[in-house]
Amino acid sequence: MNGKFPQHFLWGGAVAANQVEGAYQADGKGLSTSDLQPQGIFGAITPRMAGDSGIKDVAIDFYHRYPEDIALFAEMGFKCLRTSIAWTRIFPQGDEEMPNEAGLAFYDRLFDEMAKYGIQPLITLSHYEMPYGLVKHYGGWGDRRTIDFFERYARTVFERYKHKVKHWLTFNEINMSLHAPFTGVGLPQESDKSAVYQAIHHQLVASARAVKACHEIVPEGKIGNMLLGGILYPLSCKPEDLLETQRQNRDWLFFGDVQARGYYPAYMQRFFRENGIQVAITEEDRQTLCETIDFISFSYYMSGCVTADPAQFETARGNILDMVPNPHLASSEWGWQIDPIGLRYLLNVLYDRYQKPLFIVENGLGAKDRVEADGNINDDYRINYLNDHLVQVAEAIDDGVEVMGYTSWGPIDLVSASKAEMSKRYGFIHVDRDDAGNGSLERRRKKSFYWYRDVIHSNGASLKDRR
């Protein structure tokens, strides 16, 4: 792999505020939609009552332990750390005129700690959470006023951190709102398609406003979108399967098309018309959407298949999506199919489509790790998974794809998004905490910690082509 990764490739890892920080009401923080999902994205929405608790309330206590964790990331040689700002730390209810200074100060300390080690922040403005106050009082992203509240928040953090943060993302996995509307846009799960797409439209307009604000306030910075890279293959070469695959891939590529091209594609107009979907789009909205992102970022965990006759096949749940399993692929303990070549394919698809730099901001293997009697954690399965995917990233770069960097998901064990589990571990660093919230929170290096350190230090030269 020597020489295939660019000299200034941004190696690192990715976490999210609501999955690592804890301190869910510290220093004036308000309730977020994530705080009302104690069992994760697929769990019930539960009002908070005095005295109750959930595993995310403490998570891995990154809010207080970040200096230790940043030092461990630096030991691996991280060039970049992707995390998110908890919107409710800055505007606790979402609609305040003035921000919460204690929340702003926390991220100042975090970014300063990263700067000590030369680690660049890659910051997501909204990662699977928004102020619950905006849901309760305005109906979340269903209300156009939320666009203004988000822009105020974005401009506030751009101004505050413009000398510390040069890489930004707007909404995490923005296309997942189609599958989990409360998490994505603050709407009830049973909302009809018109309501969901109207809320998504408001979010796309807000994203474009954030792009404009970033370009004004941080002129030397770059701002991207973030897609759930759910690439799909036809299950057969039947023309009907090919057409259905194209249609389903467009379900998520639509978000990239709007954010990278600046307008709604024609195929969505037909989709809205044929499904009776009404979306109010003003001329001002159309002008705003012309503010396009600088780069495309995405998550990639698995691929899936599509058939025009899905009733004949069982589906496998992956990262939010249900997909028809590929008979040629193995699966993880959680049923997520493992497809390293799919990452190379996806990189080429996105680069061919947009001709913008790409950033792989999530990729990893959730697994049940075992601490041996001697304290070691021999996670060779994780090493093999990441090695094989990174080999395919190198191949895509050789294909001519411009790849900015790679931040593996969960470089330190965290609370999983889907079901709020600690037992589903992704990290190079083990955290002593179980699904019931028991444990010392002690950090421990896994075997993969040293493997990833070598990958970064060699700029990918230590990767092994195991095909």
Automatic annotation (TrEMBL):
It holds the Pfam family Glyco_hydro_1. The active site is at 362 (nucleophile). The keyword Ribonucleoprotein does not apply. InterPro entries: GH, GH_1_N_CS, Glyco_hydro_1, Glyco_hydro_1_AS. It is an enzyme of class 3 (hydrolase). Transmembrane segments: none annotated. Keywords: Glycosidase, Hydrolase. Coiled coil: none annotated. GO terms for molecular function: 6-phospho-beta-glucosidase activity. Its EC number is 3.2.1.86. Belongs to the glycosyl hydrolase 1 family. This is 6-phospho-beta-glucosidase. The lineage of its organism: Bacteria, Pseudomonadati, Pseudomonadota, Gammaproteobacteria, Enterobacterales.
